[in-house]
Amino acid sequence: MLTDEYVKRVYAQVEQRDGDQEEFLQAVREVFETIEPVFKDHPQYEASGVLERLVEPERVVKFRVPWVDDEGHVQVNRGYRVQFNSAIGPYKGGLRFHPTVTEAVIKFLGFEQIFKNSLTGLPMGGGKGGSDFNPKGRSDAEVMRFCQSFMTELQRHIGQFTDVPAGDINVGAREIGYLFGQYKRLRNEFSGVLTGKGLEFGGSLTRTEATGYGLCYYTQEALRVLRHDSFKGKTVVVSGSGNVAIFAIEKATQLGAKVITASDSNGYVVDPNGIDLEVLKDIKLNKRGRVSEYAERVPSATYHEGCRGVWSVKCDIALPCATQNEINGNEAQMLIDNGCTVVCEGSNMPSTPEAIEVYKSNNVLYGPAKAANAGGVAVSGLEMSQNSIRLGWTFDEVDARLKGIMESIVANSLAAAKKYGHEGDLMQGANIAGFIKVADAMVAQGII
Ligand code: NDP
Fold first, then answer.
1. Phi/psi at 147 (nearest 5 deg)?
2. Residues 69-121: pLDDT tens digits?
3. CB of 347 closer than 6 angstroms to any ligand 1 atom
4. Is 349 left (phi over 0), alpha (psi -120 to 50) or beta?
5. How close is the Cα of 105 to the center of ligand 1, in Å?
6. For burial by CB atoms within 10 Å, which of 6, 8, 338, 431 has the most?
7. Which domains can be identified in the chain, with CATH numbers?
8. 242: CA distance to ligand 1 center in Å?
9. Cα-atom radius of gyration of the chain, to the nearest Å?
10. Is ligand 1 within 6 A of the CB of residue 345?
11. What is the pTM of this model?
């Protein structure tokens, strides 16, 4: 419940203006509920309208993306780029291609990104973009034509010092390659305008692994500090089987856990022997196949229709890595009833507000997305640094920096939580620590 008068007033304005943008409202409410304690000590935030300005993107670009499919038919999708906040650096955030993409989804992701980027300690503002384009079942040539059309408009709005997009759902190395190629061709400029690039043209080692690895470094550190525990010997449930999920499974396994599930939007597999990553990577990364094929290839595994059932599998640690609102209150309760004591989020906003309430009332170690999955954008920030100095660091160098960043996110979140009277609360701490840096920069730069 909101109690601070200023916070309540601004939230009411958001409800009135953007009441139809459900996911955006959910993200704003979650942040507002947790940052209330800072306003007593910082009257300057209200005086300079920080919250009113924070909830209004600096710019929203919405555009037509026309392209021709392999049968010669014209297709039209919608493209978006939300440039949310540039107080601490150029806008930075991924592009998502998925039929569920709407302005509300991109706004929630862009809003979250502001605080996430701030938490990394790197100079990056918040942005997000994408399209309702569905690449499933499309040929490489169709994906290329779509990406070229998308970038033909997007290039007007981005640049290495303005806005630097990256990947997200269904935007991986292939799509970033096509997008980068079109940007370079239209602008006649080779610059670090996108991250997640191929290693041959300015990409950073460890970027592919960064979100999943970072999630596990974060979880390991939070377990160490708060529970004097680790991944060793734990049973882990992971949802998803994309970029974040695969490398979360890899790192959790390296850290001594047994990961027994993977899923996609159709269903999930359980492998009591631990997911065989060679097989999963071959299916998802080489063949762009479905998770059900895993059970056809691995005799110890079983496939179950319906992706939400994955939360009924007994585990010690849950790492959601698929999409938003993938765990509701009942599913959270099911996890806890089955002995789960740790939930750290690889996907953005995977837990509904009811699920978060269940974690809180059951003393679950809860690592919120904007902290736990910040490793991806952190290494994107390191890719920007490498592009600027025209040098490439080794895998181990970037990996060590990533680990250091994730450990400081845990430390900074816990310090902020303690300072504002919520010791041990990683969610409250992350929101407060991420917010204060941005708010101070906004105050210093005047009313813009
Ligand atoms: P991918 O496209 O690589 O994988 C997405 C996975 O989630 C797939 O297994 C997909 O299954 C599943 N999925 C997508 N939508 C749904 C849905 N509506 N219901 C059930 N399952 C679904 O994306 P990423 O791994 O990159 O992203 C996963 C999450 O992590 C997203 O929330 C993203 O915002 C977040 N994230 C990603 C970062 C990155 O660096 N890539 C950084 C920080 C956060 P299917 O194949 O059936 O669609």
1. -60, -40
2. 999 999 999 999 999 999 999 999 999 999 999 999 999 999 999 999 999 99
3. yes
4. left
5. 14
6. 431
7. 5-54 (no CATH), 57-187 (3.40.50.10860), 209-371 (3.40.50.720)
8. 6
9. 21
10. no
11. 0.97
